[in-house]
Write a structure and sequence with these properties.
Shape: globular
CATH class of the largest domain: Mainly Beta
Largest sheet: 4 strands, antiparallel
CATH superfamily of the largest domain: YVTN repeat-like/Quinoprotein amine dehydrogenase
Length: 624
């Protein structure tokens, strides 16, 4: 957006502009800002969704790409350049698409972000969609010629080889055919041929759909995939989905490592790919119905897996749409730890993590924003968000039928002081090591994180609810469950939360507010302020913000659990009368704020324990 357009919008005036110092000290910036969101930096497109695919500091500026939901041959999305004075420029040669790949190639001193290759002076070259079609999702260093080439993967698990100097493209693995008709229509319209190598490359047969990350090391390229393209996957979060896979030879397809939903796959070198391919571990992050999963290999062939709790179930869903791009990034903590995001938790992640050194992962806080990518820029961590969709996809609810909806999909950047990460939701979460599984006496569970949480509750039962004899074995930051008897349909569950606190009293006249979901099921919510009004809005993509009974909740889409998997946030400061989102902000009763400001009144523990402890009404169990 040009400065002239910004002035027309009335968001700033020329007198208010203050050029930030070369070190991008945003604390000195005087532009209009609400809780780290600058309204004039909002990004829009003409698609059903406008997410932030990548944010990277480069050539003295911050570079950002947005994406549409399914755009393998381009879209109305743009490449943005944010100057140190926070003016926003749109690259006029933008081609759009669904890009989330980013890699700094040291040898050529260039940044690859989406289909754009940017040199050290900020000059941009474009790899047009007719040369590298598909939803570009990940990039990795080349196994044979890293000085000149990189790999680029697509969401349909295609793989390209890109020469960073000539921009020549070769197809190594062809997509599974889902996008063929769109790509073919583009080539017919342009009178062009398919990309180099397209007809001779193997068509991938690896399971999964909705690929995310890409990394190389130990003579292999690794890809993560977090979705499944089926009608069942769009309704049932428990169907088999996603994959972690590897490849290393032209003419061959991916090889499955684990059939499971994976998102990030990266190395300690982060955005630079893997500059130490023979010694850096490969990290992979994902989940299944039971918990978050973290995998690591130190030789490229053998993997060790760990389990962590889910703070939010909004990311679940076998189709993979509800989860953007959880990442592990260096944000300048300076203590040997990185920042990871997964299922609604900010994690400190040790750069030295390996099976030989598995301790140090700690939850920092929980959050509500949907985050596509993040980086350190000057004195702030910049989160590229996915704020509001025009379509709302599978998140449509009867409770929102009269709600105001955005006319254009939009997102914004969120600038956060690193110290403020601790000011959001308290660390909490839940997960399983066994879920309706047959377990034998002597079986040991996967290691499950127990460090960093204030309270822990554990239960191990049969499917009829009777307890199972067991032992809990601690090993550093991790805990394992040892089963002491044969069990059919075993359920072993951990619940973590904040310290216990004073629970608010329910309203005497109306202790509960009843809400009926789209399936006709009735849910009873505790009422702490006497307000019987209910308000439901999508403020962050593909999850709803719900106000009921004086308490705020986050509600997943029905395909990710719906009301049965909601998360309490905090008590309301006042009854909610109006609520809508715009430019990365939410407007509650006319007041502009960021959705994660809801945590800051300090009542998150009370909301958590209220929801956990209110289980019976008139002797009958509720909300089950």
């Amino acid at each position: 957006m040009s400065r002239k357009v910004i002035l027309i919008l009335g968001l700033i005036s020329a007198a208010m502009l203050k050029v930030v110092a070369a070190d991008t000290n945003l604390s000195a910036c005087k532009l209009p800002c609400v809780s780290g969101v600058y309204p004039h930096l909002a990004m829009f497109n003409g698609e059903g969704e406008c997410g932030t695919g990548a944010v990277v500091p480069w050539a003295g500026d911050l570079w950002v790409v947005t994406y549409g939901p399914h755009c393998p041959v381009g879209s109305t999305d743009k490449l943005y350049r944010i100057r140190p004075d926070l003016t926003q420029e749109i690259f006029p040669g933008s081609v759009g698409g669904t890009p989330a790949n980013r890699l700094i190639h040291r040898e050529s001193n260039q940044l690859l972000i989406g289909p754009y290759v940017i040199d050290g002076c900020g000059n941009v070259r474009v790899v047009s969609p007719n040369r590298m079609p598909g939803r570009l999702t990940g990039a990795a260093r080349h196994l044979i010629d890293p000085s000149n080439k990189v790999y680029v993967a697509t969401m349909e698990t295609g793989l390209y080889e890109l020469d960073m100097r000539t921009l020549e493209v070769d197809t190594l693995i062809r997509e599974n055919g889902k996008n063929d008709w769109e790509i073919n229509a583009m080539f017919k319209r342009l009178g062009m041929q398919w990309p180099t190598g397209w007809n001779s490359a193997p068509v991938t047969r690896v399971p999964g759909y909705h690929a995310k990350g890409l990394a190389s090391g130990f003579g292999r390229v690794f890809i993560s995939n977090n979705g499944e393209d089926s009608a069942a996957a769009r309704k049932n979060p428990f169907v088999p989905s996603g994959v972690l896979a590897w490849w290393n030879k032209k003419g061959s397809d991916w090889n499955t490592i684990r059939r499971c939903q994976f998102t990030e796959v990266t190395t300690p070198d982060g955005i630079y790919g893997n500059e130490h391919p023979e010694k850096n571990p490969i990290w992979a992050m994902g989940w299944d119905a039971k918990s978050v999963i973290f995998g690591v290999t130190t030789n490229g062939a053998e993997w060790t897996y760990y389990r962590l709790p889910k703070a939010s179930h909004c990311y679940d869903g076998a189709h993979g749409w509800n989860t953007e791009w959880p990442r592990i990034r260096d944000v300048g903590f300076g203590d040997g730890t990185l920042l990871a995001t997964m299922h609604g938790t900010f994690w400190r992640f040790p750069k030295s993590f390996s099976p030989a050194n598995p301790n140090g992962i700690r939850p920092i806080s929980t959050y509500l924003k949907v985050i596509g990518d993040f980086c350190r820029w000057g004195d702030r961590i910049v989160f590229g968000c996915d704020d509001q969709t025009k379509d709302e996809f599978l998140g449509k609810r009867g409770l929102k039928k009269n709600a105001p909806r955005c006319k254009r999909s939009q997102s914004n950047l969120w600038f956060v002081n690193p110290e403020d990460l601790k000011s959001f939701g308290p660390p909490s979460g839940e997960g399983y090591v066994w879920l309706n599984e047959d377990v034998k006496a002597g079986d040991l569970s996967d290691p499950y994180l127990h460090a960093g949480y204030e309270t822990m509750e554990f239960s191990f039962t049969r499917k009829d609810g009777t307890p199972v004899r067991h032992e809990l074995i601690e090993d550093g930051d991790w805990i394992r469950v040892k089963c002491l008897e044969d069990v059919e349909g075993a359920v072993a569950r951990f619940d973590y939360g904040p310290a216990r606190c004073e629970i608010p009293q329910l309203d005497v006249v109306c202790p509960y507010v009843e809400v009926v979901d789209d399936n006709g099921k009735k849910w009873k919510f505790p009422n702490v302020n006497g307000d019987t009004g209910v308000m439901c809005r999508e403020i962050a993509t593909e999850r709803d913000l719900l106000y009921v009974g004086g308490v705020w909740y986050e509600v997943p889409a029905d395909n990710a659990g719906g009301f049965a998997a909601l998360r309490p946030i905090a008590l309301a400061d006042e009854p909610a009368k109006s609520l809508h989102g715009e430019r990365g902000l939410m407007y509650l009763n006319g007041k502009a704020m960021v959705i994660d400001d809801l945590w800051k009144n300090g009542t998150a523990p009370a909301a958590y324990w209220l929801w956990r402890q209110v289980k019976t009404v008139s002797g009958k169990e509720i909300n089950r």
